[in-house]
Design goal:
The structure is a homodimer of 438-residue chains. The first copy, chain A, is α+β, with helices and mostly antiparallel strands. Chain A folds into two domains: 6-100, Nucleic acid-binding proteins (OB fold (Dihydrolipoamide Acetyltransferase, E2P), Beta Barrel); 127-426, Bira Bifunctional Protein, Domain 2 (BirA Bifunctional Protein, domain 2). Chain A has helices spanning 6-11, 13-16, 59-66, 118-123, 125-128, 132-154, 193-204, 241-258, 263-268, 285-294, 307-321, 372-381, 390-394, 410-418, and strands spanning 20-33, 36-43, 46-53, 73-82, 89-100, 158-159, 165-166, 178-181, 184-188, 206-214, 227-236, 282-284, 325-329, 352-357, 360-367, 403-409. Chain A has an eight-stranded mixed sheet with strand order 6-10-11-16-15-14-13-12, sandwiched between helices. In chain A, a hairpin with a 2-residue loop joins strand 1 (20-33) and strand 2. In chain A, helix 6 crosses helix 14 (410-418). The longest helix of chain A is centred in the first third of the chain and has 23 residues, at 132-154. The mean pLDDT of chain A is 96. At the A-B interface, strand 1, helix 5, helix 6, strand 6 and strand 7 of A face strand 1, helix 5, helix 6, strand 6 and strand 7 of B.
């Protein structure tokens, strides 16, 4: 493995100045000036110019440097010196190792890749992601997942690993992908819902999971994927679903507070820091209808929000509370799954919530029904058959604490953090109705 | 959410002594002594005795306490006092809230669950895991995954999230589960192999992933699962596969060093600390054949190790090097997948390795072939059709650094760490040829 990434060389620039260093990476740009060749080297961490020049560089090395093409993989050795480059330093090249050269012309120019069409970018993703603006998306995504784990681990949550191969869909059996499994038909999990609840009931009490979820909805939108990663939490012994919202809010506050660690990634996209006020507004759905009415948008009483409604509530949160986040609470029973706990006094409404981030739903959560008989009743009222969910009902027969949780869309959070236009940009290799390769 | 877990109450025992505390959890054991009822409460973090006693406990509360059954979920309020219990404290109960009671007799006694048969335990997993010895497995597993991320993040690795829905199997197209995907047949990923390599080639350079992998092999062994979690790394700009082994070794050394953090989990299983010597032995496969011959075990030259061979090498490592770990290197080309780099001078052998932990393979890794023409040649020699892997070959056309990586079986590491007899014990909800529920 490399001794030093380019960023590490630059960070130690003063100490290494005048000394021999080696930088390995891809040839990002080439500029020729007579017998001078400037290569901009790019690695995971940054860029650094290498200068090949008669008199400084041995003739044989210079000749080989002149044959290099963009996106070749090389190691350049030479002395580090100050230079009027963006990085403040350059390498005066003495030696060059060619590790790999393109065998075909590049179908996508790496420095211009963000300007290409999305289908082209996704087709040549291994070139597209070499662009620092694009790799910033995936570095940020990894950072968010890391913060999620760190945050909930510090609150005594245990990471769990639930099956993705399941016998029944989470909600109604629709919108699941069938899998042929040793002669049986089973399904891909739409969410870890049932099993994270089981883990709480099994005494793990506070659990989280980071894993893929699979949705067979034939969407053609910029905000849906058929496979994405969900950040899930589930927690027992809650007093109400406000406990769950407090946990979600605490995580987003942590993200906002620590965002300075990845400032450069946000800057690649000209993205603003996340505004999280002292208390994130919590609006019941019925209050949301009224707010939307003020914005000239009518939503049928008892119905879900559409994308425009979410956007308008985002504007409201920003204008009224200077907040990038807003909870919508007490979702209608009609649009929530059977395992949601309903309000005792108003059973048409539930202890289910969504969190909108800059006008897009990024989290769904709520308190779950933990009472066996109520759960059976919920199933019946949803027109579902008890026998299809019998394995799930079993979990509630032997002592189940009140509990709740949330599922957060990792790609959606990444998208909203950076202001991306299409959720596919936040997925290394998106799967949609048309796309299963590369 | 609870103010304090039981462990947190106990940790602050001195400060809280004589004060009112509340402990919530499951009723682990009940002991009656005349008009005295002792309840042992159990939560995620530990146990604590609550005493219900005439004179101390209000009559109405005492009556309700006398009706409680095991595995009811309760909150007990009362003053904390010193007691000759294992925990050193108990609660003198003043109040009791019943949150949930079993609606049916328990099919599995929680304190005795490890003694039940594995099929019974897996059938009633939400009861089985309530046993502290069993939950210790899953807490340790989550801890290992956390260490993995922490360790590789600190080395500038980026976490990636690759698709589990793929158009082609990783190796030969056999042993994959077919998925019906919008009218097409696709497959579940056997490993993130192709995509973690792509991420390296895409300039992310150092990547890791924690995710499910799916193997359609109809195994009936105690060391195979059809769905498990793999800890994957892949890294560019390596000099040789020794760099990869150094990284793997560094991770296991870190595990061993930090294992004191989870000492109590190991103690539940009477497990020994992990022995990792200053340098983990690295034995070529040909040397391994000779060692095995000394142990009276003949392996056909050029063949893979079988479970007995692995066990014997485990004994050898322990006896000769006081090591729980041993690398076997230079695996035969015949038993390695096409993407493995072969030894230049001896193409029947590869830069592929396994790591055995206490006599069981827990990691497989190696240097990958990054040279486009060599890769095509490898495919041909394996009798595979280039067109089936054309999307993968594309990655290597535009500058691919030398790279390598490893996949580590999370359940196998957990199993070996604790000395479990069956890998199913280390999976919350194992999937095998017979089992897709709960």
């Amino acid at each position: 493995m490399k001794d030093l990434l380019i960023r590490e060389v630059l960070a130690r620039g003063q100490e290494l100045e005048g000394k021999e260093v080696e930088a390995c990476g891809w040839v990002h740009r080439i500029r020729d000036l007579g017998a001078l060749r400037f290569l901009v080297l790019r690695d995971k961490s940054g860029t650094l110019q290498a200068v090949f020049k008669r008199g400084e560089t041995p003739q044989e090395v210079l000749s080989r440097a002149l044959e290099l093409r963009e996106e070749s993989v090389v190691c350049v050795k030479g002395s580090l010196r100050r230079a009027p480059t963006r990085e403040g330093y350059e390498i005066s090249a003495r030696d060059l190792r060619l590790l790999s050269a393109p065998v075909e012309p590049l179908p996508l120019e790496v420095p211009d890749s963000p300007k290409a069409t999305l289908p082209t970018r996704l087709k040549y993703r291994w070139l597209d992601v070499r662009n620092p603006k694009v790799s910033a998306i995936f570095k940020l995504k990894g950072w968010i997942a890391g913060k999620f784990r760190e945050h909930f681990s510090s609150l005594q949550f245990t990471e769990i690993f639930t099956p993705k191969i399941v016998a029944t869909g989470t909600e109604s059996g629709a919108d699941v992908f069938p899998v042929l499994y040793f002669g049986k038909t089973v399904y891909l999990a739409q969410s870890p819902q049932f099993y994270k609840q089981m883990a709480v009931i099994a005494g793990l009490e506070r659990v989280f999971e980071v894993g893929p979820v699979f949705r067979a909805e034939p969407h053609h939108t910029v905000r849906h994927l058929n496979e994405y990663h969900s950040l899930d939490i589930e927690v027992g012994f809650i007093e109400s679903y406000n406990d769950v919202m407090d946990l979600v809010e605490g995580f987003f506050r942590r993200l906002a507070q620590d965002l300075h660690e990845v400032r450069e990634l946000l800057e690649e996209h000209g993205a603003e820091p996340l505004q999280v006020p002292e208390r994130v507004p919590r609006l019941t759905m019925r209050q949301a209808y009224e707010v939307l009415a003020e914005y000239g948008k009518r939503v049928q009483y008892g119905e879900d929000l559409d994308p425009e409604g979410e956007r308008l509530l985002g504007s409201y949160a920003r204008e009224r509370y200077k907040s990038d986040l807003i909870f919508v609470t007490e979702y209608p029973w009609k649009v929530r799954p059977f395992y949601t706990m309903r309000k005792e006094e108003e059973p048409a409404w539930t202890y289910g919530f969504d969190l909108l981030m800059r006008g897009l739903e990024v989290v769904t959560g709520g308190q779950r029904e933990h009472r066996y008989e109520r759960l059976r009743q919920n199933l019946r009222e949803k027109g579902l058959r008890e026998e299809d969910f019998s394995f799930y009902l079993e979990f509630f027969k032997h002592g189940a604490p009140p509990h709740g949780g949330a599922g957060m869309g990792l790609e959606r959070i990444t998208m909203q953090m950076l202001g991306l236009q299409n959720i596919r940009e936040a997925r290394l290799l998106p799967r949609d109705t048309e796309r299963v390769t590369p």
